[in-house]
From TrEMBL:
Residues 34-165 form the IrrE N-terminal-like domain. It holds the Pfam family Peptidase_M78. This is ImmA/IrrE family metallo-endopeptidase. It comes from the Bacteria. Gene3D superfamilies: 1.10.10.2910. InterPro entries: IrrE_HExxH, Rad_response_metalloprotease.
């Protein structure tokens, strides 16, 4: 019933294997996923209107996450930046090596790029098969409390879970 994102098949096969392996259990361990992909992740004091950014460094890529945002929000931002890494490395290059996302996940890159990163991020933090299993336990009609519980289980905001189960 739940689907993979359409971006899934655009990920390089060796990297897709790494990502898939980390999506077997929730909450998905995004830090470990990033590390295995060779990305360094730092919690940083970014400006208040910036949620996260990804930069090319001499040795690879580095993601910075705004330490002042909520934990769930930080998780989604990390999944969003990992998605930029997986899908948009040439875009990051074209932007001079840094893609910076404001609080609306707008970066100055084309809007379609941001939709792709958001869809893949939602897929990564709410893997379809784990979600399917959890969903079946609640039956077809998802109550408010059930959605809250699912959100907690997956480490996402209630709003993010609502969008995923309604899709
Ligand atoms: Zn973005």
């Amino acid at each position: 019933m739940f689907k993979k994102s359409r971006e899934w098949h655009n990920i390089r096969p060796d990297e897709r294997e790494i990502v898939a392996r980390h999506m077997k259990n929730v909450p998905v361990k995004l830090g470990a996923m990033a590390k295995e992909l060779g990305i360094s992740v730092k919690l940083s004091s970014l400006p208040i209107n910036v949620s996260g950014q990804i930069s090319k460094t001499s040795g690879g890529y580095e993601i910075k996450i705004n330490r002042h945002e909520s934990r769930q929000r930080q998780r989604f931002t990390l999944a969003h930046e990992i998605s930029h890494y997986l899908l948009h490395r040439t875009v990051i290059d074209d932007l001079g090596g840094t893609l910076k996302d404001n609080v609306l996940y707008r970066s100055g890159a084309e809007e379609s790029i941001e939709y792709e990163a958001n869809r893949l991020a939602a897929h990564i933090v709410m893997p379809e098969d784990v979600l399917e299993k959890a969903y079946l336990e609640y039956g077809e009609q998802l109550s408010e409390a059930a959605i809250e519980h699912l959100a907690e289980q997956f480490g996402v905001s209630k709003a993010a879970m609502e969008i995923r189960v309604a899709a």
